[in-house]
Structures are given as structure tokens and as C-alpha cells.
């Protein structure tokens, strides 16, 4: 009997329909507790932020709130979701390289605790808007330390020409931004933020990032008398999608990062007092599953297709950057492979391939195909391509099953049309 979070897969599909996104709530709770308990220091204040872009809904935000996590948002929509979830806005960090005037003012109206500034124009605009603020706005500056983690080119974020942050090589502008922020009314400049990539399996990349950030902090103090107390190290912790992936256990990564921060703080005599990280994918990815119903089976000269009732509209990652996934047929987990199948979606697009080739037992119409590790950047990147409604999302645990996002209807999908 195949289960997710203690609940039978077939019963979940019968109750909520397919395609269906199911999160093992107990697995998410275990991972949240692992981050909170592992990322601790006796010498430095620490904090864990949930990068909500991986998967955002009111139930998810309420869950991370239970564990005392801060929240990372990158748009007015993510901010509004947090507001409707009654999340403490003082614990929100608002990221983004091109925040609109409306978003920045919305953040101030909601008393968002920290705004992460990306560039000089944003710093100057924020300094103007902050004059009208009725509370001190804490600010971090996103920097680019030049650490290139080994990952897909579309999700590398720390090379010299990245769209994110200010490169350490552009020190004059970086210092100018900090001075704008430090001289502004109602702004408290806390420090630097960096993010070196996603799906990082090499722990050394994180440690090199830490060393560069501490060294650069000391350099800013010595050369410009610029002091601050916070370093946000970003996220990017790798997860297991297929057997090829070998992620480092989260506890090991966190403890190594803490140890290196403590060593660098002592070595550089730094004023840094607080260290933050921003896991997103690593909290939700492996806890998430996508349940599809198999439709037609079709052979071509070189392939055997199994079509499913979802596709790139609910999981764009394989088409966007050739992401790989593992899957199984419900009820046939122990059966030997019958053939190699290409799992394709129902969208009118040749690139709508969820899995290019996977060995499975004989696949028949009506069977349930379960894709693993779909909890991050599946639903959050979903689209209405071909006017296909968004799937329902369920949290499953040993205690209960709860629908946290209803299945979209045709009527809802066209509700804004005139």
C-alpha cells in the first residue's frame, strides 16, 4: 500500500482528484526542526528564513511560523499572502531586484521588518520613501561575492554578470549604496546579503562564501569605517531528485557553516553579531509529490509515451532547465520494469516532457503515476497555459489530511476576463 504522509495515495486521488500535489506534512516538520536545531551558535545570534518562492500559501506560512522561522518574500503577492496568514510582518525580509514603488510603499505600510536592497537606484528611492515611514526600516544590501557554485546556468546567481546584487569588484558603487542607506532617515543599515546558487552539493562553496563575506566586512571597516552587524548567507541547499543527487545532510551543512562563521568572526575581529540563512527548496522539495492519472499510451519508432493529465503547466522545471525526476506507478512499486517510458503532459507543446526516460512496470490507462520531490517550484511556477486549471494542494500527515489550496475551476480561471 503506497502512502504519502501516512495516507493512501489511491484514496488521496479519489478524494481530491488528479493532478494533485501532496505534501508530507510530517516530513516538512522534521526538516524545519532540523534547520532550527542545527543552525545555532553560542557566539553569534542566528536565524533561519523560509524562502517562500519555493512554495507559498497561507498554510505553509502558518507552518513555518510554528517553528519560529523568519520569512523571505520577493513580491507584493507573496507579501500579501503573509499578511493574510497573519504572519508577523516585523519578521519578513523583502527581497527582489526590481521592487515597484507600490511594493515598497506596501512593505512600509505593513511595517515589514527588513528590506533587501539590490542596486543604487532602489537605495535612493527607498531613502526618499522612508522619510514618510513611521518606524525604523532595517535594510540589507545584496552583494555578489563571486562564488560560483556548480549548478545549472539558469540558477547560478553569484557570477560577475548576475542580475542580482552588487559585485565585490564594483566597490565604489557598493560603498555609495551603503552610504546612501546609512545617511537616510528611518533606515537602519544592518549588513550584507548574498546567495551563491541553488542545488549546491559542495559544502565548500558555502564555506568560501562565508570567508569572503567576513573578509570583505573587515575591509569595509578598515577602508571606509563602514560597520554593520548582520550577514545573510542565502540558501541553495541541495536536495535529492534522483539517485544521481548526493546532498549533504542539512545538520552537517549547518554545523559546518556555524563553525566557519565563528572562526572567521574571531579571526577578523568582526562586528558581525547575527548570521542568517534562507532555505526554501530544501524544506519543501522532498516532502512534495505530484499524483497524475495516466491517459493514453503511444508508441513512436523510438519512444513509448505515457501521457498524464498534467504537465508543464503544473511543473515547468523539466522544460525550463532540464530538471530530472524519479517516479513510480501506485500499486506496482515492487514490480520489475517492463519498458522505458517517456512521461509527457497534455499541453500543446513538444517540450512538455516531465520525464524523458524512466523504466517502469507495464503502464496502463487509469494508473496513478507519482512523481517524487515536486514540492519546490512546481505549484509556485505553475501557469494557465492551454487554459488548464491549477491542481489542488493537500497536506497529509498521520493525523489528518487537509486541502490547503482548492482545485481551480474553469469559472475561477476566467473570472477576471471581460
Structure notes:
The structure is a single chain. With 418 residues, the protein is an alpha/beta fold. It folds into 2 domains: 39-282, Alanine racemase (TIM Barrel, Alpha-Beta Barrel); 288-413, Lyase, Ornithine Decarboxylase, Chain A, domain 1 (Beta Barrel). It is 30% helix and 24% strand. It contains 12 helices and 20 strands. The protein has helices at 9-16, 25-38, 58-66, 76-84, 101-109, 120-129, 171-182, 203-224, 250-268, 281-284, 317-321, 410-413; strands at 3-4, 7-8, 20-24, 45-51, 70-73, 92-94, 114-117, 137-144, 166-167, 187-193, 230-232, 274-277, 288-299, 304-308, 327-329, 339-344, 353-360, 368-372, 392-396, 401-405. The strands form 3 sheets. Strands 3, 13, 14, 15, 16, 17, 18, 19 and 20 form a 9-stranded mixed beta sheet that branches. An 8-stranded parallel beta barrel has the order 4-5-6-7-8-10-11-12, surrounded by 4 helices. Strands 1-2 form a two-stranded antiparallel sheet. A hairpin with a 4-residue loop joins strand 13 (288-299) and strand 14. Helix 2 (25-38) packs parallel to helix 9 and helix 6 runs parallel beside helix 7. The longest helix has 22 residues, at 203-224. The chain is globular. The mean pLDDT is 95.
Please describe the topology of this protein.
Layout lengths: L2 E2 L2 E2 H8 L3 E5 H14 L6 E7 L6 H9 L3 E4 L2 H9 L7 E3 L6 H9 L4 E4 L2 H10 L7 E8 L21 E2 L3 H12 L4 E7 L9 H22 L5 E3 L17 H19 L5 E4 L3 H4 L3 E12 L4 E5 L8 H5 L5 E3 L9 E6 L8 E8 L7 E5 L19 E5 L4 E5 L4 H4 L5
Parallel strand pairs: 3-19, 4-5, 4-12, 5-6, 6-7, 7-8, 8-9, 8-10, 10-11, 11-12, 14-16
Antiparallel strand pairs: 1-2, 3-13, 13-14, 13-18, 15-18, 16-17, 19-20
Helix pairs in contact: 2-9, 6-7, 8-9
